[in-house]
Amino acid sequence: MSDDERQTRDDFADAVNMTASELRKWLDTDESKEVGQKSGGSTESTGHQSGRHIVRILEKRQSEYTEADYAHMRKVVGYVARHAKQRPHGDVHDTPWRWSLMNWGNDPEKH
Hints:
By secondary structure, the chain is mainly α. 59% of the residues lie in helices and 0% in strands. The radius of gyration is 14 Å and the shape is globular. It has one domain (3-103). The protein contains 6 helices and no strands.
């Protein structure tokens, strides 16, 4: 395993604070399906698609990770870092901002 892969896994573990089962349950909610950008006529947002990929990654052994998995992990780390900086003022519990982060495996209310 390369240092880059190790760093990617560590960064991903820091960014994704939801378990596979928590994320799977969240992705089934109406709130999860409401938020995010949909492209190319898709009915599913980019974040929702990402969440499904994150669940698959979390359910794999590290030895089973593919290059596509590592690429997606890097994408997740970047998205969570950028989006977290846009935190709105006040209570964020029922906000599209939080829901969008949760689609990417990060619940900002979870410590």
